[in-house]
């Protein structure tokens, strides 16, 4: 596929766009909840509040936490996963990442 996507058929709307999908993959990899301050620091090129508003509260939301202030929450990880696959930004789960460690332990080399 010439567009760099794994599938030509897009998942359910809304289409978050490639840069937002990269952010969603990053957020999901970190447990789906991160402080807004941390997100802004890491993703300076994105208007995270606007993205949350456009996606709506069922997909991504910003909440006020008494402990850390505002937090960004990925509410629908399945929806985000489908877009990550579509844009080829899927975050591998632990089992997909352990192969190199297993090979290294067999050969005796350090990882």
Tell me what you see in this structure.
This protein has about 110 residues and is α+β, with helices and mostly antiparallel strands. It has six helices and three strands, in the order αβααββααα. The protein has helices spanning about 20-30, 35-40, 50-55, 75-85, 95, 100-105, and strands spanning about 35, 60-65, 70-75. The longest helix has 12 residues, at about 20-30. The N and C termini lie far apart (about 35 Å).
Descriptive tags:
three-stranded antiparallel β-sheet; 111 residues; 3 strands; 6 helices; alpha+beta; Arc Repressor Mutant, subunit A; globular
Short note summarizing the structure:
The chain is α+β, with helices and mostly antiparallel strands and 111 residues long.
Whole-number mean pLDDT: 84
| Strand content range | 5-15%
- Percent helix among the residues? 40-55%
Using only C-alpha atoms, the radius of gyration works out to 17 Å
- Do you know the CATH topology? Arc Repressor Mutant, subunit A
Please tell me what the overall shape is: globular
CATH C-level name: Mainly Alpha
CATH architecture title: Orthogonal Bundle
Summarize the helix and strand pattern as letters.
HEHHEEHHH
Helix-strand category: alpha+beta
Strand order of the largest sheet: 1-3-2
Instruction: Please provide the count of β strands.
Output: 3
**Distance between the ends:** 34 Å
Structural domain tally: 1
**Major pleated sheet:** 3 strands, antiparallel
Poorly predicted parts: 100-111
- Number of helical stretches of at least 4 residues: 6
